[in-house]
Design brief:
Blueprint lengths: L8 E5 L5 H8 L3 E6 L3 H10 L21 E4 L22 H12 L3 E7 L13 H11 L4 E9 L10 E9 L19 H4 L17 H7 L18 H8 L44 H7 L13 H10 L3 H15 L2
Parallel strand pairs: 1-2, 1-3, 3-4
Antiparallel strand pairs: 4-6, 5-6
Helix pairs in contact: 1-10
C-alpha cells in the first residue's frame, strides 16, 4: 500500500499498525512522518504502508520531523480505559499527551486530531480536574491556539461493523477562522456479522486464530449464538464464576463470554482479545475469530496483512487500532470543511 503523494501533509504520532493513517490516505492525505514504539505495530505498518520511526516518542527530536498540515495522535488509551486500571495521567503512558502537545506547539499544524477511549472524558488529572478540560485548555493556548471540537461517537454510526465508543477530538487553528463538525451518520444497515463474515478471502495468511485456553474451550460449547456465560449450566461453571453468578449485583452483572449472533453487530474488539471480557467468540464455530475476521470487524481492507512476533501480537495491534473506516470518514469531513 503505497503512500499517496498529495498536498495535504500529515504527521502521525502513536500510529499503531496504521488504522488512522490508511483512512486519511484513502481520503487523499499524505503521511510525511509516522512514529510508534510497539514492535508488532511497527512490523505491520512497514509491511503495508512504509517507513515508520520506531523510537520512543521521547527520544525523537522535534526538528527531525517535517512540518505538516495535520497532526494525528492516538496516544495510548489503556491508562484511560474502563477495561484497564484507569490510572490516567498517573500512568506514564497517560503523560504522552504532553509529548504530542510539544509537537503541536513546534509544528503548528492547521488541524489536530486525537482519538481515544470514552474513559478520557471522566479521568481526572493530578489537580483533580477533568483531563479532557485540560486538553482543551492547552490546545486553546498553544501557539496560535486551536478551536476544539470533541464528541463521543459510536464507530458503527460511520460504517464500522462494530459497536465501538470512542472520543474524537478535532482542533482547528484559530487563525484559519473555520469551524468543524462531525459528518452525518451513514448507513450502517449492513454491518452485522452476517455481512462481515461472508466471502472471506481464500488462501489468506491471516486466516489463522489464536487457540483458546482448555477452560474456555469447555465453556463455550454451552453458549449459543447471541448468548453469554449465563447460558452455561451451573454444573459446568468454574467456582469463581459460580460465586459471581450468585451475587450479580455485587459484581455489576458482568456479561462474560459474550457470543454475538450473525444478526448482531459485534461488540468492541479489544487488544487483549480475551473471550471472558470481549465478544471474540465466533457465532457458530468454537474458536476465537480469525485474524482476518477481526480485521474486518475493525474495517481493515482484506489486502492489509498483519505480521507480528506472535499470534497474540496480531490480535493486539488490531484491537488497538483506529478503525480505518472511521478515520476515512473523519478525514473526508476535515478535507471538505477545512481544506476546501
Amino acid at each position: 500500500m503505497a503512500r499517496r503523494n498529495k498536498n495535504i501533509k500529515v504527521i502521525s504520532l502513536f500510529s499503531g499498525c496504521g488504522g488512522m493513517d490508511i483512512g486519511f490516505m484513502k481520503a487523499g492525505f499524505s503521511i510525511v512522518y509516522a512514529n510508534d514504539f510497539d514492535k508488532d505495530a511497527v512490523m505491520t505498518y512497514e509491511k503495508n504502508i512504509g517507513e515508520i520511526d520506531n523510537r520512543d516518542i521521547k527520544q525523537v527530536k522535534i526538528d527531525e520531523v517535517p512540518s505538516a498540515d495535520v497532526l494525528l495522535a492516538g496516544f495510548p488509551c489503556q491508562p484511560f480505559s474502563n477495561a484497564g486500571n484507569r490510572k490516567g495521567v498517573n500512568d506514564v503512558r497517560g503523560t504522552l499527551f504532553y509529548d504530542a502537545l510539544n509537537f503541536v506547539r513546534a509544528k503548528q499544524p492547521k488541524v489536530v486530531v486525537f482519538e481515544n477511549v470514552r474513559g478520557l472524558l471522566s479521568i481526572v488529572n493530578n489537580e483533580g480536574k477533568k483531563f479532557i478540560d485540560e486538553i482543551v485548555s492547552r490546545l486553546d493556548k498553544v501557539g496560535k491556539g486551536y478551536k476544539v471540537f470533541y464528541e463521543l461517537v459510536n464507530a458503527n454510526d460511520y460504517g464500522v461493523p462494530q459497536n465501538r465508543m470512542r472520543l474524537v477530538l478535532v482542533g482547528v487553528r484559530k487563525d484559519l477562522k473555520k469551524t468543524y463538525r462531525l459528518p452525518e451518520k451513514i448507513d450502517n444497515s449492513k454491518t452485522s456479522l452476517k455481512f462481515v463474515l461472508k466471502n472471506l478471502p481464500k488462501n489468506d495468511l491471516n486466516d489463522e486464530h489464536w487457540e483458546l485456553s482448555p477452560q474456555s474451550k469447555k465453556l463455550i460449547v454451552h453458549i449459543p449464538a447471541g448468548g453469554s456465560w449465563k447460558s452455561i449450566p451451573d454444573k459446568h461453571l468454574p467456582e469463581r464464576l459460580k460465586k459471581i453468578k450468585a451475587n450479580m449485583r455485587k459484581y455489576h452483572a458482568p456479561n462474560f463470554y459474550r457470543r454475538f449472533s450473525l444478526d448482531e453487530v459485534c461488540g468492541t474488539i479489544t487488544a487483549a482479545a480475551t473471550p471472558e471480557n470481549s465478544g471474540i467468540i465466533h457465532p457458530h464455530k468454537n474458536r476465537r475469530y480469525t485474524v482476518r475476521e477481526i480485521a474486518r470487524i475493525q474495517s481493515f481492507p482484506d489486502n492489509f496483512k498483519f505480521v507480528a512476533r506472535s499470534i497474540a501480537g496480531k490480535y493486539k495491534v488490531i484491537g488497538n487500532a483506529v478503525p480505518p473506516q472511521l478515520a476515512f470518514t473523519i478525514a473526508k469531513s476535515i478535507k471538505s470543511q477545512i481544506f476546501s
